[in-house]
Specification:
It contains six helices and seven strands; from the N terminus they run αβαβαβαβαβαββ. The protein is α/β, with parallel strands linked by helices. The protein has one domain: Aldolase class I (TIM Barrel), CATH 3.20.20. It has a seven-stranded parallel sheet with strand order 1-2-3-4-5-6-7. It is globular. The termini are close together.
Length: about 160
């Protein structure tokens, strides 16, 4: 996942394993578009919170924030070939995710990208992930070192800072 940091996102994306998916996130719409255009063709892109940009650039799909998760059915009907994901921060948020392809559960560990957010902890997050209807990816403070603490109930990991 990208964020609002000034970073060499293209270099980070090129270092990812083949078939990785990159969620393009930036609060500013102009920055989000520029970043999506810069990364297009380097990996499959999901555009965070901006379905019109995803349509416009031919992205692989859409990433929705937890508060907009219920929009997934609408976008799935319009774009059955899209990968559609969402963020989730609790077990309650994971209920009714049938129109999603995956969920990013966070924060698992303390993270610099969301200072002050209370981590779920690996044990609690694994319990939540095990009950999900869709694949769940661990996000938030995940590093090579602490990734070994994650349970097999996760389908994989997502990262921001540890990729830079």
């Amino acid at each position: 996942m990208t964020d609002d940091r000034k970073a060499d996102w293209a270099q980070a994306v090129c270092a990812l394993p083949r078939d990785s998916v990159v969620v393009v996130r930036a609060r500013d719409a102009g920055r989000r578009r520029a970043l999506a255009e810069e990364l297009y063709g380097l990996a499959r892109l999901l555009i965070a919170g901006d379905p019109l940009l995803a349509e416009d650039i031919g992205a692989a799909g859409l990433h929705l924030p937890e508060l907009r998760m219920r929009e997934a059915g609408h976008w799935r009907a319009r774009h059955p070939d899209w990968i559609i994901t969402s963020s989730a921060h609790s077990l309650r948020a994971l209920m009714g995710t049938a129109h999603l392809d995956a969920v990013f559960l966070s924060p698992i560990f303390a993270t610099t990208s969301h200072r002050g957010a209370k981590p779920l902890t690996p044990v609690r997050a694994a319990t939540i992930a095990a009950q999900a209807e869709v694949p769940v990816y661990a996000l938030g403070g995940v590093t090579v070192r602490n990734g070994v603490l994650l349970a097999p109930s996760f389908s994989g990991i997502a990262a921001i800072t540890s990729l830079l």
